[in-house]
Every structure is written in C-alpha cells, then in structure tokens.
Amino acid sequence: MHTLSVQTPSHQYPIFIGQNLLAQADKLLQPYLTKKAAIITNETIAPLYLKSVQTALDKLGIVHFSIILPDGEEHKNWQTLNLIFDDLMQNHAERKTTLIALGGGVIGDMVGFAAATYQRGAPFIQVPTTLLSQVDSSVGGKTAINHPLGKNMIGAFYQPQAVLADLSTLQTLPQRELSAGMAEVVKYGALGDADFFVWLEQNMPDLMGHHPEKFAQAVYHCCKMKADIVSQDETEQGIRAWLNLGHTFGHAIEAEMGYGVWLHGEAVAAGTVLAARLSEQLGKTATADTQRIAALLEAAKLPAAPPKFAFEKWIEHMSHDKKVSSGVMRFIGLNRLGEANITEITDMAILERTLQPYL
After folding, report:
1. Is 210 one of the catalytic residues?
2. Has 184 been annotated as catalytic?
3. Which of 84, 73, 71, 92 minimizes the C-alpha distance to 117?
4. Are 256 and 32 in contact (CB under 8 A)?
5. Would you call 264 a catalytic residue per the annotation?
6. Which of 127, 142, 311, 325 is such that its CA lies 20 to 30 A from the CA of 56?
7. Phi (first) and psi of residue 120, to 5 degrees
8. Which listed residue (187, 251, 277, 317) is catalytic?
9. By C-alpha distance, which of 95, 46, 85 is closest to 66?
10. Active-site residue among 247, 277, 317, 330?
C-alpha cells in the first residue's frame, strides 16, 4: 500500500492506494469517521462493493444507512442530488454524519457537493472504484453537478477527509470505462511530465492488460502529481487549471452529444488532441507531439478525433466553460509535450482552423 498526503490551506488528508483495501477499510478509515455514516453509491457498484463498506462500519460499531442512485453521467443533476438530500433528512443525518462516496467520478462529485452543502458542510470520504476517479476526480476537492448548458457548472471546492483507492475494484471495470480513465492518465504526462509520458508509451499494453504493479505505479504517479498541484493551488487560481488539459473541448463534446453518450474520458481524449492542435496553430507545439498524444490515446482504445458538429455549436458550448474570464475564452494548451500553459483566444479564426477537419 502507498499513502500520499494532500496538504491544502483548508485541510490535510491521506490518499490510500493499494490492492484489497476495502477489506482493511475499518482500520484505514477509522480516524476519519464519525458516529454515523451514509454510504452513497449507484445501482452498478452496490452489488459489488456496498457490503464491504457496510461490514467495515459494522466492525467499528458505526450506525449507517445506504443511498443507491441511478448510474450514469446523465443523472449528475439537481434531481439526483435532491434524492441524496431526501434520504439524508429522512434518516436524520446530522452535520457530523460522514458521507461516503462509493463509486466513480459521478458519485464522487455529487456526494462531495452534497457534503459541501448539507447543513452547510458535512464530512465526507472518497472511495473511488473507477480508474478515472482514482487518478483524478476523487483527489483535490472539486465537487459539482452538471447543468444542461455546461458540465460541472454548479459546485464547490470541498476537500474529503480521506481517499481510499482500492486497485482491486478495477478488475470489475468494463473495458470502455478502463479506457476512459486512461485518458486522464495520459493527460498527466502530456501536461507536466514528459518522462511519465514516455513510460506510458512503453507500458500501455501492460496497463490495458490490468498489470497490477504497473497499474499501481500509474495511479500513484497521477495522484502524487495532482496532490502536489492542489497543494499549491487549491481553488484553481493558477497552475491547477493545467489539469483541465483537453477539458474545454471535451466538455463541449459531452454537452453537444448529450451527457453519457460519450464518456467523460472519451471526450477528454479527443479534447486533448484538439488542445495540442490548437497549440500547433499558435506555433508552440510540434506536429510530432500531437501525433504522439493521438497514438498513445488510440493505444488505450480511445478516440483521437471528436464527432463532427457545427463551429457555432463548439463556440456556444465553450463560451460556458468555467475558464472563461471577462468574456475571453481560455484554453489549456502545451508549450511542448510535458509542459502546459494557459492561453487566451480572442481570434475565433484560430479555433476554426483547429476544428476545421471536424466541422
């Protein structure tokens, strides 16, 4: 097992990474639990892992109840959030009731937002069960729900008490979901660690084959990179924005296609290639770097090109992006492979040239 620490101005907490950690959840999570807990999961994860968390709480004598939500990005909205609040109130959850997010990124984001707002703030713990959530969304305290006009537009920065990433849960992950998570792994190499990118090029076949030791290396490396960035910039005023490489384009794809049609990681994969193409248009990134990013994503069975839709639709969706400042679109691009930047775009012709093959 590996343990990392996330240190932010508001809070310090551990990330536990390893195999079969759910069997040790009572010991690992005991310091971060209160006398009452709500386990919040979805219909897919509940039959697989809910019993393990319930058993851990039973061993500790913690009173608990479970909330099982529908599965899918299309349910990441006010209606589902209110289902959480309904059950919390019906079960007399108090401000000190610990909310446990058991599932992927959708569950983690929604439970975190529920915790941030229920009685103005309840403690919560992340137990991510997908690759995407283990390497990215469970760490750093970004919580949110989607709005029809934009992804993750309604939310809060709210840090968990602890993160328990049990790598053995990835054994039950469908291949498409595994690939979607790999998009975020590739993103880390592209934005901030060229050596890690090379390592991924060399080891992607083993990673796609569920090689346990190499999976542990990849998850640990991504979590460490994110912990370091979040420790420097908790509320995304500067370098934390780099973690959104590919996301402005990716969120536009998700919104246009309908949430859940393209998985988040699939949209981010195509968006990362577009971000590299935009950097090419600005004369910052070599074509060879863009080709390497596309090839690595394709090796992870991910799309390297977006669906085709009108340029006006791209602009409409991207104008709602959270990085827009004073009406100016801002994108995360690359100076070179392994080094991200924040770029303001006022000339729409540059964007149109970037997107031209896909219009």
Report:
1. no
2. yes
3. 84
4. no
5. yes
6. 142
7. 65, 20
8. 251
9. 46
10. 247
